[in-house]
Amino acid sequence: MRLTPGPPRDIDLDTVDLFDLDLYGTGDPHAVWDVMRAEAPLHHQVLPDGRDFWSVTRYEDVCRVLGDHREFTSERGTVPTHLGQDDVAAGVLLTSTDPPRHTEVRRPLGSRFTARAVRSWEDSIRRSVTRFLEPALDGEVFDLAEKALLLPAIVTGPLLGIPEKDWEELVQLTAMVAAPCDPHFQLGSEAATLAISHHELVGYVTEWVKERRRSGAEDDSLLHHLMSVRPGGAPLSDREIALDGYSILLGANVTTPHTVSGTVQALIERPEQYGRAQADPGLIPDLVEEGLRWTSAACNFMRHAATDVPVAGGVIPAGAAVVAWIGSANRDAALFAAPHTFDINRPNAKRQIAFGFGSHFCIGAPLARLTLRVFFEELLRRFDSLALAGEPDHLRSYFIAGMTHLPITAQKRRTP
User: Integer distance in angstroms from the first to the last C-alpha of the chain?
Assistant: First the structure.
């Protein structure tokens, strides 16, 4: 979806379809969210097939929905593709489990992802980013969005314990989960694409675990660590390991590529911001936070109301699905001044909620922040300027905001 909205226009919220894929592939959802925040901060939509959902778009309301598991449960599915059909892995899959079980499983995994813990991976990440950027040094057209899909696998594959020969296939499968209606990834119908990708990913982790058990091999990888987690004193079953491994693979691969592409596009369109960051590398962590806010790659998450819950002047009825639009919350002028301006000097950019909010805040956020910081350090160190070499293609997805193509050219820096 376009990240810089067009001019304000009349929008009839009674006819808006927030599940219209064209709105994200070629349209302008930010213009719609602006009107929703102002006029209908709690919005109800009924789909043609009878399924319905509520939407919250203001920062405060999105944080409330995502942050209170007692009022809004994750145990019926957390992404819009689950609307109308409860997640069969609820209560087992980490992302579809509420505390206290969620906390028991997450806590030992989280110890591997603290800012201090991931710091030891910086040299490895820098080597991976350098390797990734090498092809752009020759000045030829470099499709950043297409290439960036593989970047998280290059960075995290060794940390997860995934061999390089499998990276490309797993990246394709995770993209199918995230954007099952995009023609670049779709195999048959949306349902077929989701079913195939889910089956293959869970099957991959299942075989990975079986092989580790057969061989007795031990390593320091995250997937191996998952085998030793003992929530409540009991080890995870192989099914739980497979499902949580599936969740970790999705989290590792899906959002970072689109944060990279969207932030680079913003810098190309605003060369003064590129120059400012290049002149003062101390601004790069702020650039990362503004890039996360600006792109909001995971643009929503879903919950279900446990009871009738008053929100934003209305009431979400018990059992109803509610979609919390992160992409809208991160452009809420009540918190972010001039929200549609990309500004690496924004003083409160770190309040962005691109990683979610509450107990399901992204477990890999410290690793993602480190990867993004290193990426932009190396990008700014190597290139004097960047330019678009064609029109971007936006991902056809109402869940992930991103691009499938962003052709660019890069001018090698003369004085590193």
Answer: 34
Cβ atoms of 239 and 92 within 8 Å: the answer is yes
Q: What is the DSSP string of 318-331?
A: TT-EEEEEHHHHTT
- 372 within 8 A of 128, measured Cβ to Cβ: no
Q: Locate the DSSP E strands across 337-406.
A: 383-388, 393-394, 403-405
Q: How far is Cα 113 from Cα 94, in angstroms, rounded to an integer?
A: 16
Interstrand relation of 300-305 and 72-73 (parallel, antiparallel or unpaired): antiparallel
Return the half-sphere exposure (C-beta side, CA atoms, 13 A cut-off) of residue 167: 20
- pLDDT (tens, 9 = 90+) of the chain, 416 residues, equals 889 888 888 899 999 999 999 999 999 999 999 999 999 999 999 999 999 999 999 999 999 999 999 999 999 999 998 898 888 888 888 889 999 989 988 888 888 888 888 899 899 999 999 999 999 988 899 999 999 999 999 888 888 888 999 999 999 999 999 899 999 999 999 999 999 999 999 999 999 888 888 888 777 788 888 888 887 788 888 888 888 888 888 888 899 999 999 999 999 999 999 999 999 999 999 999 999 999 999 999 999 999 999 999 999 999 999 999 999 999 999 999 999 999 999 999 999 999 999 999 999 999 999 999 999 999 999 999 999 999 999 999 999 999 999 999 999 987 65
Q: Are 177 and 400 in contact (CB under 8 A)?
A: no
Looking only at the bridges linking them, the beta strands covering 72-73 and 407-412 are: unpaired
The residue extents of the domains of the chain are 21-412
Domain 21-412: which CATH number of 3.40.50.300, 3.40.190.290, 3.40.50.1000, 1.10.630.10: 1.10.630.10
